[in-house]
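Saturday, quiet lab. Running sequence design on the structure tokens for the scaffold JK sent over.
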């Protein structure tokens, strides 16, 4: 079948396997050239949310920079005869294709990480896989979660708290600046979002892995968070998602104590920078902010995508000669340090009011944003022949 992008709002409902292979390979090549050089590096890594965005890059860095075994957990749609798989499914196939000749081992579980069935399947796979993990990365971004304790399905939402929020936003389909008006969250919205994106499920995973003796002595357990700029505060950090992130960060302190007491381990929350992922493209205002941020950070020579951030997490924060992990006053790793640089942020504030539909492409890197967005689904990548038929089920067998 010949696969073309079909974009609906902030998602693309098709994906191209050869494009996904090419972009996973590009990340793997960068990871190979940025080896973790210290001896005490991770040997067996569990990545929960391993198929796209930060989790995929974490898996790639684990396999190609640290040369570790990986077990990847994700929730992705497999292909059908005439319907491509989700991008994360092809990314994971691509990861397995690229690691098949390595001496390390890699396994996957495709299922709902919030469910007990999936957790049980991971435990079984982990045991047959070779035992305890010395690095666990929790990188889920999900719109809903069924809590195994009460069987209730909670939905996350992106709403401000306490007041209506109005700001300019970007219609990424049309390339037009519009105004977005968002009604404030109800107490129920706040609680539901915390149930999905807060720390509860990370804690459940940690307790289970400990109970099953699957956390090695000295294990590092890490989850990702975001803070972001002034312009997105009402919708992000001070909104429903921000409350959930605060809960995640607070839970991180409890998990750190549990890790210390039970396996001489440690837990961190890493605050990462804004990048284009399936999760971030769904947040109002963020695509415009990211388009502007790209322009400014390129000019400063500090631009990074997911893989560059995770390479920096490994080489400059977690696994280096100094042995001390730099954290902020709240104990968080700050990979967003270059994004939050006051000079970068003051340029964002100066430019924000001036962006219009007419000057969008000149004042921001919206073209790059769109290219990155298509790339998430394997489209628009140099060297991929999009006119060629692809086998949707086994796309890499002829390679
Ligand atoms: N994108 C950003 O700009 C940004 C910035 C800082 C921090 N973060 C954080 O990084 C983390 C990952 O976000 P991302 O942007 O990489 O997201 P993403 O949408 O690219 O990836 C989400 C991952 O979670 C998996 N997933 C979703 N629901 C699942 C379920 N029920 N069971 C199993 N797997 C499931 C998906 O398969 C995928 O692998 C989040 O905590 C996010 O807040 C993102």
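Result came back. Writing it out in full:
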């Amino acid at each position: 079948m010949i696969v073309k992008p079909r974009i609906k709002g902030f998602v693309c409902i098709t994906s191209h396997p050869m494009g996904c292979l090419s972009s996973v390979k590009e990340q793997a090549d960068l990871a190979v050239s940025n080896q973790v050089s210290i001896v005490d590096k991770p040997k067996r890594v569990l990545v929960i949310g391993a198929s796209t965005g930060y989790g995929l890059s974490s898996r790639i860095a684990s396999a190609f920079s640290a040369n570790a075994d990986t077990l990847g957990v994700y929730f992705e749609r497999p292909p059908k005869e005439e319907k491509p798989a989700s991008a994360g499914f092809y990314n994971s196939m691509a990861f397995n294709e690229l690691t098949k000749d390595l001496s390390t081992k890699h396994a996957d579980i495709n299922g709902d990480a919030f469910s007990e069935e999936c957790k049980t399947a991971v435990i079984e796979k982990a045991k047959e896989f070779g035992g305890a993990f010395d690095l666990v990365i929790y990188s889920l971004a999900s719109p809903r979660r069924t809590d195994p304790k009460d069987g209730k399905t909670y939905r996350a939402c992106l709403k401000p708290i306490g007041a209506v929020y109005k700001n300019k936003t970007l219609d990424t389909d049309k390339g037009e600046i519009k105004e977005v008006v968002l009604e404030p969250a109800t107490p129920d919205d706040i609680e539901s979002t915390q149930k999905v994106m807060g720390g509860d499920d990370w804690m459940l995973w940690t307790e289970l892995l400990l109970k099953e003796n699957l956390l090695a002595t000295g294990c590092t357990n890490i989850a990702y968070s975001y803070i972001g700029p002034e312009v997105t505060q009402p919708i992000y950090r001070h909104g429903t998602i921000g409350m959930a992130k605060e809960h995640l960060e607070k839970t991180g302190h409890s998990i750190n104590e549990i890790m210390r007491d039970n396996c001489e381990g440690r837990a961190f929350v890493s605050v990462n920078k804004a990048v284009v992922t399936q999760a971030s493209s769904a947040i109002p205002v963020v695509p415009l902010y990211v388009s502007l941020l790209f322009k400014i950070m390129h000019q400063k020579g500090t631009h990074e995508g997911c893989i560059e951030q995770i390479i920096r997490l490994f080489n400059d924060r977690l696994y280096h000669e100094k042995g001390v992990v730099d954290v902020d006053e709240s104990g968080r790793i700050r990979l967003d340090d270059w994004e939050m640089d006051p000079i970068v942020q003051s340029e964002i504030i100066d430019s924000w009011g001036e962006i219009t539909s007419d000057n969008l492409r000149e004042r921001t890197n919206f073209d790059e944003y769109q290219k990155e967005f298509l790339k998430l689904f394997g489209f628009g990548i140099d060297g991929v022949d999009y006119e060629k038929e692809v086998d949707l089920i086994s796309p890499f067998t002829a390679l």
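Notes for JK: Residues 49-55, 73-76, 88, 112-114, 139-142, 224-226, 272, 274-275, 277-280 surround nicotinamide-adenine-dinucleotide (CB under 6 Å). The chain has one domain: 7-376. Ask whether to fix the surface positions before the next round.
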